[in-house]
């Protein structure tokens, strides 16, 4: 096998109470990539469609993670990477993470899987860092492992796969506005009240318990963010209206996807998720702001080979 | 049935990363109480052994929780309470919680169980508040439900029962020193760094996952407290020596039990727990400070009727 085509999924990081440590994987949104073994040594990005991104491997998220992996192996051949980008960079649903895991996952498959998924994520962190200026894995881990992933720590990298109920669905709206990462970061409080922090870990522990037991009432009660959302939601137009409409339409909870501007909602069953989509569309249709909206099953497999 | 004898267990609150929201229940340490239906209306504490505590119901933790429950029922009889106190007040292993749950659990049994365990815990919160000056349930919940209990919120009271592996054991040392609650509270930071808070909920989420999956490596990696322990441990003599000795002897983790001065360790299997006990004894034997030390299985049942 000298060539492989893969689907590299979009992901939702933070998941309300799990700021910086939790993410889940989407099914219906993702990039496609082709990875090819070639005689010419090194990493070569030969095609990019969808968005305008650099071809130089050192300046491309996929390229940087691929180079990190290439440096760790000793081979007399190289790899070509084609990127069919469907996740808009800056949308807040793990666009860079999808690019970063895609190249290393594909190369690993072509090499006969010398690395496990945690090792691959370590390479991908290098690519992710190019985009986000810091080493984090809360989009990478769910893209690589699927389902809900808890990044217990980055150094050493410890990823825990959290089970989730079969009929959990996500609705994601991506308002077509740009939020500068620097602006979003600047809004993060450096210090938080101990009482709020305590509420947050009570919620996060409950979320883990609710996902394990498949108890939707527990999941619903856990999906609150008292730490980051009050600050960052200011950058997202009509955030409160969207989350209120989602909850009224039957969502378990709603929150900022990553650092935004996308907003995710979780629902029990696809019917609820579609009702939530309809309710959110109604809110946003009035605003004059362009948007994409998706309903997706939680993708329990993560990144995968396609034909 | 007009009289009941109960075992009301000691408990460990906080469990390192679960400050204010998590506790577990002990098997080998606890109070005994006798609750008796009598003609004379009201709540009457008729016997207290072990420690010197007030007989007036309004001034006694057991009495206050019993009165809270008594106010919620309409009966033409009363209750007598006998308390055989074995958990020293102020030891940090839920002495007041054991007293608070004991009376209401016993009364509920004699009444034919009109209340569920969460409702009983709501009454017990009133008694606990007398001792600790604030309404909290992280000792009450594990005493009432057994095992590991996560207090998701106090108002409304939501308690989640977290499963735990069969062969998990606790070692508890209680140095015979007094820590004033006010002093211990004063050491709590009002604000914490967002980065530390994030580490704490990553740990706490991991602990919940480790308990669900019975993965001792995950439990071990999760048992860290970067928020409260660095402050409160200063009040406990030889804290660092004890936790170091415990880890070296094979403990999964060690931390402050409640607000101290007791220190808990968790171990896989009773042999490890006994090794940990021996190692801690060696440390404390040299200090000249009196201490009690116990090894206990995690008590999965909680408070219970005895003959």
Automatic annotation (TrEMBL), chains A, B:
Keyword presence, Amino-acid biosynthesis: yes
Q: What class of enzyme is it?
A: transferase
Q: Does the keyword Amino-acid biosynthesis apply?
A: yes
GO terms assigned for molecular function: ATP binding; homoserine kinase activity
Where does it mainly reside? Answer: cytoplasm
Query: Which stretches make up the GHMP kinase C-terminal domain?
Result: 208-285
UniProt-listed Enzyme Commission number(s): 2.7.1.39
Give the CC-aspect GO terms.
cytoplasm
Question: Which reaction is catalysed here?
Answer: L-homoserine + ATP = O-phospho-L-homoserine + ADP + H(+)
- Residue ranges of domain GHMP kinase N-terminal in the record: 69-147
What's the protein called, per UniProt? Homoserine kinase
Encoding gene per record: thrB
